[in-house]
Amino acid sequence: MGVTAHVHPGLVAVTAGPLDSEGRREFSSGRLIAPSLVLTSRHGVAFGDGEHRPDIEVRLVTGPRGAVRLTEPVPCAVVWQGDAEIDAALLKLEPEDSWTLPAGFVGPRLSWAEATGTEPVPVAVTGMSAAAARSTGDDTETETVRGTLDPLTYTRSDRFAVDLASAWPAGWSEWSGMSGSSVLHKGGALVGVVAWSDQPYEGRRLTAVPVRALLADPDFRAVLREHLGEVPQVRPLDTERSVDSARLLAAPSLPSAVRSTLKAPPRRIVDRATERRRLPELITGSLSGQPELVHAIVGMPGVGKSALARHLAQQFTADFPDVQFELDLYGHTPDQTPLDAHAAVEVLLNWAGIRADDARTLDAKAALWRNWLSGRRALLLLDNAASVDQVSCLLPGDHSSLVLITSRIALHDPDRIVITALDTLPPEESVQLLMSSAGLPQGESDDPVLKEICRACGFLPLAVQAVGARLRFEDPGELLLAMREAESPLLEIPDADQRVGSAFAVSYQALEADPVQAELLRTLAMHPGPDLGAELCAAMTGLQVRECRRRLGDLADLHLLQRMGRNRFAFHDLFLAHARQRAMAQEPDRRWDEVLERVFDHMTRRGEAARQSLTTGREDPHDARAWLDTERANLVAVTLAAARRRSPHARRLAALSHTVLGWFGMPTALASIWTAMRDVAVTDHDLPGQADSFRGLGDAERIRGSWADARTNYLRAREIYEDLGDRRGQAGVMWGLAEVARTQGRHADARELFEPALTMYEQLGDRRGCGDALWGLGNVALSTGRYEDGADAFARARSIYEHLGDRQGQAQALRGVADIERNRDRPAEAYDNYKSALAIYEEIGDLRGQAQSLRGIGHLERLDGRYDQARDAFTRARDLSARIGDRRGEADMLRGLADVERLPDRRGT
């Protein structure tokens, strides 16, 4: 076996048992990525339940072009396989002792890459037909197909699409045999593995699992490390824009829903002169000739990391004008769990106007974020990071954006992050900062008392500024004496947090002259959420909103609170613990109970009113949406607190959060709420609470596409509901299980669940439940071609929703009827119903409904020859789908646009 000139190095044919009715074995393609390791498809070597197929063998595809042959079979064993969603596997060759690998067959080591931008990239897929692989091995020919991989077009959230230049060759049974083939970029980098698909796509599309999804599995990485000696690093592809590949991407990008969340920079900055000079030089590239755009400012608590970062952000806003986002990651905030990577990227996607419902994994969400960020001149400030892992998925994939990170720990990632470590201030700069904060004249800079005050503050900027506010009203000598008489004399305390605590104690003492203000600070410390405004302050204290606004401003001026934007305030994380200690020491338990119940009641009433306004459309929804957008983080924190304190408001808050977080595309936060509700219910042996929590968890997992977890939680809820005899709960669980089945394409299973749910809702007199079940049955009928049944179900659902005043339900039913009329070739009726649904969706702000209605309108306009109108409808629908993160919907709209562009006459009418 001395052949060295192999036309396709590494290509293998994989066969496995059992024999089919015609005596043939299962066949797929694969690639030898190490001398004894093959990467191929899962379904070619395993059954649907994961059990390995018998008699797995590979044959090497050797020889030069025109003389390709297959070697004798080599036995294999499966050493890794993906789950049901990841159609890929690794095989280990187990040859006889006399077998040798042909020289040059493996070829050079593969590089691994992913497409992260917005431009389609050219790829090639080489494999074999099943017929060729089952031949004797002589005169065998391979098939290489070329196409483009569009990062914006996913067939599922974990599969990308490869659009091919041609259909399958004559004599092939579709693309049978190509499963398991490697998808290679034109430069030779491996970008994916061809996977099984139940959609033929007219022979012009293959689906593939991205390499990023494979490397996310720790067991996969372990096998690679064993055989390769390392885990390959995934690099972004260098994409090239061509006229053909860019044909659908010419429209201007959708502006973000939020343009800037930067907090106000310091009014003036008199410290950190060295860093303020060096960091801009690094950012602009004037030091090294190459701009450094990802920086981490690290140091101990209160050292001025955030102030310096915000100063730099303000300095560079004009250079990065597209968006400026600041996100608090709560890495070291007292009584606040650090924002995990899932939740952090969801917040950023929401600010960008993108919902990530269809992105099931962290990698998928991060890919959406990088894709949106690609090419933008954006500024990202990630404050209070807990670890490299927390921020790595938030970093851009290109070099167009500036990222500033602050953290108490060193974020070691030398390939991507430039570290700037801050120590305590030099004494001279500390005195300058104190004088600036106190408004003292420059001539007093030599006063030794000022230096001693700074020393008592530990030369920490946060402490110096807080004490400087006191120095506006007190003699420096008396202030220094008060600081030295504090419980822990600062000169003897090395710990920076305790020094800030002493500074807080001094500042707090000034408030005791105003008992209302001191009590207000203690009361505010009881709030479980990250920030608040005057309205919530009034609910907590009983003061008037105007007075609260004034008093909150006064506390911010004393640096006991931070301004978080217009009329929004929060404690700095270093002061919050000390403020809560004061509250716990000076306020009785009944006061805590009273204040927190006021918070729970206020958030429940305001949130339910906002939800009602949006769902019924009876009032202007603008104010309701603005309130929910501002308070959603507080809603999560308050609901969690209500659950853990077993408040009577907990269930209403959980139900409210269930709806609101679904709108905002935040299933991770929703799951955390239902997990807390479940834990409390289990501890209290509260069976109804357990059932409701498991059902809520099922809904949360269904929204984020985790079908198996959703089903598990629904089944646990159903078991408890049945034991309790709770028929309404049973009906709700059946509806959830039916939606899972329908979304997965198991239409018969869905119908068998929707029908008994409908019967049960009818027996209970639950009109809304009946409407929802009928809507589900209508969708099942639509998907299976039973248009009469579907039309009847949608009509009945619409009647119920109209009676209830549920405008969103009415729009859903109207759109369902329109889909049926379009499939029945009744364009006029379909058009009217789409337009009616679209009008309602626009009125209530349902972006997904708008996109789906516009898609239907686009199809009708195209069929009627109104190509300009069709193009406009599909473009609007595509932009809306992108905004809410609906990748499947976005792909549908791009296909609709492609259908319009392929027509011979595209002049419009």
Question: What's the arrangement of secondary structure elements?
Answer:
Elements: E1 11-16, E2 26-34, E3 37-40, E4 57-62, E5 69-70, E6 74-81, E7 89-93, E8 112-114, E9 121-127, H1 130-133, E10 143-156, E11 159-164, E12 182-185, E13 190-195, E14 205-210, H2 211-215, H3 218-228, E15 234-236, H4 273-284, E16 294-299, H5 305-316, E17 323-328, H6 341-351, H7 362-373, E18 378-385, H8 388-392, E19 402-407, E20 418-422, H9 427-438, H10 448-456, H11 461-471, H12 476-484, H13 496-511, H14 515-524, E21 532-533, H15 534-541, H16 545-557, E22 562-563, E23 568-570, H17 573-586, H18 589-616, H19 621-644, H20 650-664, H21 667-683, H22 687-703, H23 707-724, H24 727-743, H25 747-764, H26 767-783, H27 787-804, H28 807-823, H29 827-844, H30 847-863, H31 867-884, H32 887-902
Parallel strand pairs: 8-15, 16-19, 16-20, 17-18, 18-19
Antiparallel strand pairs: 1-2, 1-4, 2-3, 3-7, 4-5, 4-6, 6-7, 9-10, 9-12, 10-11, 11-14, 12-13, 13-14, 21-23, 22-23
Helix pairs in contact: 6-7, 9-10, 9-11, 10-12, 11-13, 13-17, 14-17, 15-16, 15-18, 18-19, 18-20, 19-20, 19-21, 20-21, 21-22, 22-23, 22-24, 23-24, 24-25, 24-26, 25-26, 26-27, 26-28, 27-28, 28-29, 28-30, 29-30, 30-31, 30-32, 31-32
Compact overview of the structure:
The chain has 909 residues and is an alpha+beta fold. The longest helix is centred in the middle third of the chain and has 28 residues, at 589-616. Mean pLDDT is 83; it is low at 135-139, 239-256 and 488-497.
